């Protein structure tokens, strides 16, 4: 009986092992049937077992967890094979007279042989999987090496493309530079040919006109003694044109009762009422050789002009401001009568700087700024009083034409080099 119980225990163990191996075998070689194939999950269980099998009931999937480190289970296979061999020897050596017991033992022996075959196959497959893992590791290492090589090649290719692009840019820049040099040479050649009898930087409006300009307007001039230049209004139509405007009154929009600095530097709008500035007039006329024309109009649209063949401000002066920008004017002609020759030789006076010969400041008294003597026969920078006025001589006055109590509607003072100076400058 003891032996019988031992056999029963061993059979129970074998049944458990057989069931486990059968489940694994079915999972490895599923049978075709009405039931759907079980779902295999590789999510690890908390147990950390090599293989975790759960019963397939109510749709519960079979979960299998394989250690990613793929440990060596050959010892377990050897233990199972040894156990089965022991069982087979025990069953083979068991003698029983009961034919039912003997048949059961033979059946168990056959089942164990089958299980031995399955276990052997599983061992072979496990060894194959392990070898496959080794191959995969080698392939992974190969892929990593290939990836590194590709990265290096890509980087090297990018650097080569960058260098090639930079080289192309440098070549393009060199070509453009050569083109600009050629263009510069052509422009210099053309400019030299165009300025055979004129200067590239016009000194005044007569030089602007010599360049072929015939339209009245604002232009840049660069006098010999003021190389930075400034903007002036050029009259290209009156009496042959080429006039540089130095003063204009036309509508009373600009206040002319100003101090010394304003008259020294100039004020107003070049296209409208303005005073060019004593320093600029000096830079244009300091060497002499200029003529002055003054055009006038009253409020009845009558017009007149006064022309002076010799005009300059601060002629040959080393410090014109300290000298007061003295006026030189001579050789009158025209239709308005002379009201300026008596001012020749006088220094300029403003309300805040008195250079006249009167006991009073003529500029303050007559509301203007001029080359006053004691005090004036003309006051073109006086108040814009719009025709006849009750006050005395404090308007825009030209006494030889309209007296001392009539303020003119329009005046324009303009200068240009004399014909003799033009001949000297072109020879």
TrEMBL record:
It holds the Pfam family Fibrinogen_C. Keywords: Calcium, Chitin-binding, Disulfide bond, Glycoprotein, Membrane, Metal-binding, Signal-anchor, Transmembrane, Transmembrane helix. One of its GO terms (cellular component) is extracellular space. SMART domains: FBG (SM00186). It is found in: Membrane. Homotetramer; disulfide-linked. This is Fibrinogen C domain containing 1.
């Amino acid at each position: 009986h003891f032996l019988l119980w031992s056999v029963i225990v061993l059979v129970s163990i074998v049944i458990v092992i057989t069931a486990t191996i059968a489940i694994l075998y079915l999972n490895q070689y599923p049978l075709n049937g009405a039931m759907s194939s079980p779902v295999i999950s590789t999510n690890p269980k908390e147990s950390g077992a090599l293989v975790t099998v759960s019963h397939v009931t109510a749709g519960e999937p079979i979960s299998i967890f394989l250690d990613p480190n793929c440990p060596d289970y050959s010892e377990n296979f050897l233990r199972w094979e040894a156990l089965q061999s022991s069982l087979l020897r025990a069953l083979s050596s068991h003698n029983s007279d009961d034919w039912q017991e003997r048949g059961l033992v033979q059946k168990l022996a056959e089942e164990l042989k089958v299980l031995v075959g399955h276990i052997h196959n599983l061992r072979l497959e496990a060894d194959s999987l392990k070898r496959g893992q080794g191959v995969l590791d080698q392939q992974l290492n190969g892929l990593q090496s290939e990836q590194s090589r590709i990265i290096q090649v890509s980087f090297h290719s990018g650097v080569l493309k960058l260098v090639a692009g930079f080289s192309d840019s440098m070549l393009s820049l060199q070509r453009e530079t050569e083109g600009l040099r050629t263009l510069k040479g052509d422009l210099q050649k053309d400019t030299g040919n165009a300025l055979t009898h004129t200067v590239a930087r016009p000194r005044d409006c007569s030089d602007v006109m010599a360049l072929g300009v015939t339209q009245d307007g604002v232009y840049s001039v660069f006098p010999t003694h003021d190389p930075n230049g400034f903007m002036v209004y050029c009259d290209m139509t009156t009496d042959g044109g080429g006039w540089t405007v130095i003063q204009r009154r036309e509508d009373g929009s600009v206040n002319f009762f100003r101090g010394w600095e304003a008259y020294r530097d100039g004020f107003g709008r070049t296209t409208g009422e303005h005073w060019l500035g004593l320093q600029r007039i000096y830079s244009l006329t300091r060497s002499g050789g200029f003529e002055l024309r003054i055009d006038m109009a009253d409020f009845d649209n009558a017009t007149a002009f006064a022309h002076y063949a010799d005009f300059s401000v601060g002629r040959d002066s080393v410090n014109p401001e300290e000298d007061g920008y003295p006026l030189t004017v001579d050789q009158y002609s025209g239709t308005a009568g002379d009201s300026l020759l008596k001012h020749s030789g006088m220094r300029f006076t403003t309300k805040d700087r008195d250079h006249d010969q009167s006991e009073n400041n003529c500029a303050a008294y007559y509301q203007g700024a001029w080359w006053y003597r004691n005090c004036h026969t003309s006051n073109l920078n006086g108040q814009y009083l719009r025709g006849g006025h009750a006050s005395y001589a404090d308007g825009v006055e030209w006494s030889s034409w309209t007296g001392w109590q009539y303020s003119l509607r329009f005046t324009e003072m303009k200068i240009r080099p004399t014909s003799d100076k033009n001949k000297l400058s072109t020879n």
